[in-house]
Amino acid sequence: MALVADDDAELKAKAKAKAEVYYGDEACQLCAQLLLREAGLPNGLLPLEDLTECGYVQETGYVWLKQGRRVDHVFRSLGRLVSYGAEITGYAEKGRIRKVKGIKTRELMLWVPVEEIAALGDPAAGGKLVCKSVAGITRTFPASAFHVPEKAAAAEEVKVDCARAPPATPVLVLMDRSGAPPVVKNN
């Protein structure tokens, strides 16, 4: 068992060495929203608070988000309680996040870990969101249940004053953005 844990920690350390890492709640919230937008997932899927660190490894899609403490969130339109751990990890791809760690949902009397979240169809046009668990439980929900209306100013393109942004909180490019307007990346 110790060898597996050591190998896993070593792989994570190597992945994080190649990653774009961001600190602070504002930069990490922006990172999470960009991740969801570019993966084609609803913007309210990760209602995280007090984010301290996030990172993304472009070549593998590995992403992690760290927050100060676990957050329990109720999606009222679904009547579902979801727990977001202090650290959430996964591999982001177009239309899904796989090998998710740190997200659990309440099924009857048990907390069931979510392993994969995938979009079926366009979430903005009434698509569905499929959540799969390690236990083999699969649930399909309307993507609109995870959508949060954006503020009028935020609905337009996000603009960041690069001269004011400190080097520790850069704007980032998470995935292939072919055809989309470029995002500035500070290094």
TrEMBL record:
InterPro entries: At5g01610-like, DUF538. Gene3D superfamilies: At5g01610-like (2.30.240.10). It comes from the Eukaryota. This is DUF538 family protein. It comes from Zea mays. The gene is LOC100278076.
